[in-house]
Design brief:
4 helices, 25% strand, three-stranded antiparallel beta sheet, five-stranded antiparallel beta sheet
Amino acid sequence: MDHPLISRAQQQADVAPTEKIASIDDTVLLKCKPGGSRWRGAVWEDQCAGLGWVVAAGRRTAGARDDFYQKLCDDCKRKRAALNQAGEELAPGKRTYSRHLLPDDDDRLRLKAEQSYELLQEARARVPKLIQEARDKAGDPVRTEVFGTAVEAYVFRAIGSYDELYLGLRVVGSAPEGVHYLILNLAVPEALAEDWAPIEAPHRANEPGEIFYFTLLEVPDLHK
């Protein structure tokens, strides 16, 4: 998002923790203050996932009733009062309740979907480029990494109308289910799943956990 608050929050993720919002005492919320802007935000850090979430935002107007920090504090005090009145068991000795602002299962599901989409877009750009580079360097391996998977391509030029394409896949990190199928689909979009066959790597031993696939690519007519 092209917004000064989001940009500042992303910058803060790479530096030491910032100032805590003192008026919120039930959860640690950090101040997010973009330079040259009245925008202010509250950031909650998910220590387990290593992520920061902007959970509230508004404009800073010191002394005003609609000042972001004042409004955040008032809202969280009202929330706690309502929960106390409803008989909820809350941690004693606190004045505010802000946990309703924190990410829930729907937020995490949305994040997972967006991260998967970003990985797919990256793979759509990298894998076809990898194959083209391999065709330009016939016989020399070309490597990249997508979906947490090492991908190495060889192209051997044969006499005739086809190139022999060897594509080695080795999962080196966390990868989505069916990652081999995804990569093979992106490598040669016009090739069907049945056009690929597992095969021994040409001229070298496979690396641990690596599977090589083979298919034929039609040689483009360079005169067109």
